[in-house]
Design brief:
The complex is a heterodimer of chains A (674) and B (183). Chain A is an alpha+beta fold. Chain A is built from 23 helices and 10 strands. In chain A, strands 2, 3, 4, 5, 6 and 7 form a 6-stranded antiparallel beta sheet that branches. Chain A has a 4-stranded antiparallel beta sheet with strand order 1-10-9-8, covered by helices on one side. In chain A, helix 1 runs antiparallel to helix 7, helix 11 packs antiparallel against helix 15 and helix 12 packs antiparallel against helix 14. In chain B, 38% of the residues lie in helices and 23% in strands. In chain B, the strands form 2 sheets. In chain B, strands 5-4-3-6-7 form a 5-stranded mixed beta sheet. Chain B has a two-stranded antiparallel ribbon with strand order 1-2. The chains are: A alpha+beta (674), B alpha/beta (183). At the A-B interface, helix 4, helix 12, helix 13, helix 14 and helix 15 of A face helix 1 and helix 2 of B.
């Protein structure tokens, strides 16, 4: 019954989506207000049916209704309730339904809060949003129906991959999807703007919070995935340049570029057509990411082709959405006239610089990800493109990005004075890299790459504080005045600082852990100890333990430093039974200075055990960095000036044109308050 | 012209994807289909232990009767999904031979005691070598072996009523027609 309810709701949602995609759009073209005002209610309808459908599937998982094939294949009565629920989106069909749910939720949010948008523009945005929903609905109904029955219904389900029964992974996909789908709003705004032939600062003020929202979710989603790989896969790696990871990283790169270029549209009314293209590109990457990974085309052409129906559908859908919007772009982009001019050395110039490098980085990642597939398709050869390619192309591209990131906040709009800039930051340019260089050359333990990484991280982090000090005139000594200025800083500015500081932390963590990780691969007997970096790991022995749906061998390592007890690491080697699978659970203890990391291997048959022990300096700062970046995104989103876009008044224009320039330092990010 | 550049780049990628889609065979044919069962001999399952006096061998299949050969294991959850259907098929008079794959005989017996035993007899593939010899890629799988001991069909994964009716039953009938019925 619940399956039929869910299935039926999907069909009704499709009808709603078709109506939303056509009537308001036609009304907008004809100037028919009644048709245009249908967009809101229809979007609510679409969302309601998506909720019912998703609720039906969730209920089926909750009660373990194995008469639904999807539940039988992905759930199990003995599974903890949390993983029953996360199992809903942990599979192909369910994840599509989850996508649809968020897609229609965001559409409904625009319908609800979009009072400052003109009726015509709102109608177009919601129609485009519904068109994307149609694609997902058809894909589900025609090839990937989550409500298919299993006949006969089995007594017990197939379980969930035990690797996936983990909080890190269970919550990693929803964050990614919130990110991917958030960009759909930017996409719909971009398409509506192309149809309308106009991109205004108000447009940018709408797109910016959505970009921030999507970008923040995507940031934390990627970080969670990486953290999961780090503690679950058992050898301390955290990023593999695996196609699945690249698929989430590519929209992030495009989204980061969009985040910056949309500011230029808002403040300076220029870069319009480029920003629209980026909005299309970002969502295209999200679609490519979801579909290609879900269908397996990237990992292997065979998997793609193993279900030709899905493959053809995916390709047709991508061609329609991406091809269609790029065609529209090709014919309409010249309507978007550029505004003010600017010099190369200016804040706009730096943001363009950022965009160029981000998009180039995106292109190299895309190329590396698709290349094996094309070689396989055309030459029939199996090759893989591994970390060496990505490291060789990606890292050099990030160096100028990091430098630009440190410099840009010091520059005013339109035209900056290179000399002044140099004076402004010469202290950190001189102090940071030189002192770091001396330090590392003196201790003698460095590589050119690591030296560069530390210098860049230090330079970027200090530039954030220097810029804050400049802005609040902290160094002038009047603390009361500084405090007032500090409180007066726009939230968007805080967001930027947090974002950039997060990047500095990540750079530092990557450099330190890649360069100075100590690794010991040993066979160890109970009572023996081994020194890893400054820490002594004493093996206390192993014992069998039983979990709810697995059995495990647990090893104990007592870690001390200079005789001081620090922690006991308890790595496990787990064996799950439904389905059968062996996993390693690393024993990890995070210190501020780095992570102690232990993995238990096989016994050697003579009372010894294989073990891998690591000390990874500063590595957990990477995830803190990502967390700070995400927070920065949210802080920036709550900036009052972005909410202003929601009020009627600002629609006229609170745009402050060229009022700020080099003489007005504090207003480079400050808008006319309204 | 610059405005068309994104479209052109995307068209190239999409064309590549499209060609990739058509170049590849959609179904990878199983290596052993159309060949006789390889020579093998494994112990039979009897009351939870391996029956060392009686073996299941390839010769048992070339007796003019068409059979289903089902590879299962007690640790395999999809096997539980298809098990009720196997019980039904056995009740309908189909001959089914089981291969317990990489499973403890005690566990296999428990599995059958719990869910019912649809098999005429069960061979023990303790180390998984028989599975490799007949070309399995996992558990469960179901083969059709005709009356001459030839593998005429291999189904990878569990079977349900629909796949049985659409994919297995017609081939099973054809095999029976060609090489002799079951009874």
């Amino acid at each position: 019954m619940v399956a039929e309810l869910g299935h039926y709701s999907l069909i009704l949602a499709l009808l709603m989506a078709i109506l939303t995609a056509t009537l308001p759009l036609y009304g907008a073209a004809r100037g028919d207000g009644r048709l245009m005002s249908l967009a809101g209610p229809l979007s609510y309808g679409l969302f309601s049916f998506a909720v019912i459908s998703f609720g039906a599937l969730t209920y089926a998982y909750w009660v373990s209704d194995f008469s639904i094939l999807n539940v039988a294949l992905n759930s199990h009565t003995q599974k903890p309730w949390l993983y029953k629920i996360t199992g809903v989106w942990g599979n192909h069909e369910g994840s599509l339904l989850f996508w649809l749910l968020i897609l229609s939720l965001f559409g409904a949010l625009v319908a609800w809060r979009g009072k400052s948008l003109t009726l015509r523009f709102k109608a177009r945005v919601l129609s485009v949003q519904a068109m994307v929903s149609i694609g997902f609905l058809l894909f589900m109904l025609l090839t990937s129906n989550p409500f298919l029955r299993a006949d006969p219904a089995p007594f017990e389900g197939n379980g969930l991959n035990p690797l996936l029964q983990d909080p890190g992974l269970a919550f990693h996909p929803p964050f990614l999807y919130l990110g991917y789908v958030g960009f759909s709003i930017c996409f719909s705004f971009a398409i509506a703007a192309l149809i309308e032939g106009d991109v205004s600062p108000v447009w940018a003020r709408w797109v910016r919070p959505w970009t921030l929202l999507a970008w923040s979710f995507l940031t934390i989603g990627i970080a969670l995935g990486s953290w999961w790989a780090y503690y679950e896969l058992g050898w301390g790696g955290w990023w593999f340049w695996d196609p699945t990871e690249n698929a989430s990283f590519m929209p992030w790169l495009a989204g980061s570029a969009l985040l910056h270029s949309v500011i230029v549209v808002e403040k300076r009314e220029t870069l319009k057509s480029w920003t629209v293209l980026l909005a299309i590109l970002t969502f295209s990457m999200s679609l490519l990411g979801t579909f290609l990974v879900r269908s397996g085309v990237v990992t292997s052409v065979h998997a793609f082709a193993s279900d030709p129906e899905r493959g053809v559908f995916i390709l047709a859908f991508l061609a329609l959405v991406i091809g269609g919007s790029l065609t529209l772009y090709a014919f309409r982009a010249d309507k978007l006239t550029a505004g003010g001019h600017f010099k190369t050395i200016s804040r706009e110039g730096m943001l363009v610089f950022n965009n160029l490098f981000m998009v180039t980085a995106l292109a190299t990642v895309l190329f590396g990800t698709l290349y094996p597939m094309f070689v396989d398709a055309f030459l029939g050869e199996k090759i893989t493109v591994g970390p060496p390619y990505f490291e060789a192309t990606f890292i050099p591209l990030m160096v100028p990005v990091l430098i630009g990131m440190a410099l840009a906040p010091f520059m005013p709009w339109k035209r900056a004075d290179a000399m002044r800039l140099g004076q402004n930051i010469r202290t950190i340019i001189l102090i940071v890299p030189i002192s770091l260089a001396i330090y590392f050359i003196l201790i003698g333990d460095y590589t050119p790459l690591s030296l560069m990484g530390f210098c860049l991280a230090g330079f970027l982090a200090l530039s954030v504080f220097k810029e804050l000090a400049d802005r609040t005139q902290l160094l002038k000594g009047d603390f009361q005045k500084s405090w007032k200025r500090l409180k007066g800083l726009p939230r968007a500015h805080w967001g930027m600082m947090m974002g950039h500081f997060g990047v500095a932390l990540i750079t530092l963590a990557i450099t330190a852990s890649e360069t100075y990780t100590t690794e010991k691969l040993i066979v160890i007997k109970p009572g023996d100890s081994v020194e890893v970096s400054d820490y002594v790991f004493e093996f206390a022995g192993s014992r069998p333990i039983a979990g709810p749906n697995y059995t495990a061998i647990e090893g104990g390592f007592r870690v001390t430093k200079d005789g001081q007890f620090i922690t006991t690491l308890l790595p496990q080697e787990r064996t799950y039974w439904s389905p059968f699978m062996q996993t390693t659970e690393a024993g990890i203890h995070s210190l501020i200075s780095g992570d102690l990391y232990a993995v238990l291997g096989e016994p050697d048959g003579q009372s010894g055990w294989q073990a891998r022990l690591y000390f990874k300096p500063l590595i957990s700062w990477m995830w803190w960095g990502a967390f700070i970046m995400m927070l920065g995104g949210f802080v920036s989103m709550t900036d009052g000036r972005l909410r202003v876009a929601l009020s009627k008044k600002s629609q006229k224009s609170t745009f402050d044109g060229g009022s700020d320039s080099a003489h007005d330092k504090s207003s480079t990010f400050v808008e006319v308050k309204s | 012209m610059m405005r068309f550049l994104p479209l052109i780049v995307f068209s190239l990628i999409a064309t590549g994807l499209g060609i990739g889609l058509t170049l590849k065979p959609t179904i990878i044919p199983s290596a052993m289909v159309g060949k006789p069962l390889p020579q093998f001999s494994v112990a039979l399952l009897k009351d939870g232990v391996s029956d060392d006096d009686n073996n299941l061998t390839h010769r048992d299949f070339a007796d003019g009767k068409t059979r289903l050969l089902n590879v299962f294991a007690s640790w395999c959850q999809p096997c539980r999904i298809e098990h009720p259907l196997l019980m039904q098929l056995a009740a309908d008079g189909h001959l089914i031979v089981g291969i317990a794959s990489k499973d403890d005989p005690t566990d296999s017996q428990k599995f059958l005691d719990q869910l019912g035993d649809p098999y005429k007899n069960v061979g023990l593939d303790l180390d998984g070598r028989l599975g490799i010899a007949i070309g399995t890629s996992g558990v469960p799988e179901t083969f059709i072996i005709d009356g001459n001991g030839m593998i005429t069909y291999q189904h990878i994964g569990y079977i349900d009523t629909l796949t049985f009716k659409q994919e297995i039953l017609p081939r099973l009938e054809a095999a029976k027609h060609a090489t002799g019925g079951q009874e």
